[in-house]
Hints:
The protein is α+β, with helices and mostly antiparallel strands. It is 31% helix and 15% strand. The strands form five sheets. The protein has a three-stranded antiparallel beta sheet. Strand 7 and strand 8 form a beta hairpin.
Amino acid sequence: MSRRPLPPELLTGSFTTHAADLAGVSRKRLRRSDVYVPSRGIRIPAAPAAGAGGPAACLHAYSDLDDVSVITHHSGGAFWNIGLPGWLQEDWRVHVARRRDGSKPRRRNVVGHRLTFLPGEVVLVGGLRVTSPARTWLDLAALLSIDELVAAGDSLVVEHGPDFPVPRRALATLGDLQRIVAAHPGMRGVRTARAALPDIRVGADSPQETKMRLILCRAGLGEPVLNRILRDTWGRARVWPDAAYPDRRIALQYDGAHHADPWQQAVDERRRAVTEALGWKEIRVFKEDLDGDRPFVVEKVRAASGREPRERTVGAPNRADSGPQVYVRAI
């Protein structure tokens, strides 16, 4: 006997058993193998509808459990697409909070919290009750190191204007982060948040770009400019470096794993050619250039600046700055 298909409204992501009751789906049907049970009262279709999925769809049922449950911490970070470290992205548990005068959520695969929320710190987005971007960042301060929190903050305040291939609006401003820290002086993690605030900048599209900026600053090479646009003699935007030293005409491009793709390599080669035609040097930076106690990106920038390089660290990467380059921003 074939199973009765789930109604379309239950195929978009997680749903509560109450929602299934309202849709006329029996509890017996919810026990079939094509429905997962991540936690009490919550179900997830094994084969969601085409185009469904993503953090919002997976989290929706958890804020539907009642009228007060709120998605928080790195679950909220996943929803807002905040730049989180890899170790935290691997934590699949869902963080759910209720107000401090209520009971702490207790269920399988859920990390429960009792928190104090000020007006505006909980928002409703597409039916999902979640902490605001700034409040999510502040909650993350209890879990992250200072540099990891700087990267998370960078991912919230980043924005790109109409001259960029993909314009982008900030989810929060630096002022928003400063105000929310000031509003919670005794909150867990607030010292980390205060320490991170001075290093947050607009313009970094990924945690690795933030890491690159912090390394260069701490190496005494000066703070690179983010969101610098390289234009041709007609004023047209041609290249969008991840970071730049305009006084030295050095453009830095962080190339992640996807830059190994042959098509992307061709795009990268065009980017380099255009950069050099505009009279700039391009430095390609790879993940391994940012690793270790003496990151090799420092030597790359010193060499491009014409400064005397320090003794090279044994085993430091020595990748040639050649290869495919663009009219498209590499992130």
